[in-house]
Amino acid sequence: MPAHTWLALGLITVSLPLLVWAVFSRPTPARLKAMANLRRGVEAPDDSDQTAPANQGGAVRPSLARRLVPAGMVRRLDRLAARAGRPAAWPLPRLVAAKIVLGLGAAVLGLLYTVSTGGSGAGILAAVVTVIAFFVPELLLHSRGQKRGEAIALELADTLDQMTIAVEAGLGFESAMAQAGRNGNGPLAEELVRTLQDIEMGRSRRQAYESLGSRTDVDDLRRFTRAVIQADAHGISIANVLRTQAAEMRLKRRQRAEEKAMQIPVKVIFPLMLCILPVLFIVLLGPAVMDMVDAFG
User: Fold this and answer.
1) Which of 86, 126, 135, 240 is most buried, taking the most CB atoms under 10 A from its CB?
2) CB 255: neighbour CB atoms within 10 A?
């Protein structure tokens, strides 16, 4: 057996256990709780923070995986993880390790395939598969973030209605937000609770609201937070702002539903032409064609 084959087998033997560990290993509940408390209210570092010493202020020295991945890519992963709600099973170090292991495993398998098959086509295919495997964590986080954003946009109108009722009943805005967070069970309720925790930790209301809009990356929620910030700055009644925003969100939700309903005929055309019409023609015209073949055959 050639030497490069032994090398590829050795790399696969090393990378597969790392992949299994990165995917299926779960931290203990105590560690999850401690990390959640430490990261609460902490945003992704800016570019200017990268020049700071590794241990300044008690910071933890970056792991080997983070050293192998560019800092900009780590920050992008952190933003995508924040948009996806920071799944407990996928902390940032595990995402970085998964990128390296998936990319390395795909590269080794692609090398084996290229050596065994030969040709430029195999090399191009192996390179494409390696790139896709390296970016799989980003794709998964982006998909989960999109679904979470759609759920937040769908829940926003009803949540604003609840907050409007609570404010008109005499509660303050933050108390109404806390009540909506306790009564809800979706991603929007989690974000409201997170915003209140940021305020309790000492962040200003403006910073907490801006962080809520940037963290979720939902246009409707960002527009609502800007309206709340302006109302707080200019002394506008928050009840009127909530009522206006709730009506606007309901209108936008209805418009999105109508838009999706209008897209259904266009989306149905291709399955209809490719799957249903050929079968229908076979059923209707098949007996006539068979009779014509028998008559002229």
Assistant:
1) 126
2) 10
Task: Categorise residue 243: left if φ over 0, alpha if ψ from -120 to 50, beta otherwise.
Answer: alpha
Cβ 108 vs Cβ 5: under 8 Å: no
Half-sphere exposure of 209 (CA within 13 A, CB side): 19
Count CA atoms within 13 Å of residue 193 on its CB side.
13
Question: pTM higher than 0.70, yes or no?
Answer: no
Name every residue whose Cβ is closer than 8 Å to that of residue 146 and which is 6 or more positions away in sequence. Answer: none
Q: What is the pLDDT of residues 141-186, one digit of tens each?
A: 999 999 999 899 888 988 998 999 999 888 888 899 999 988 888 8
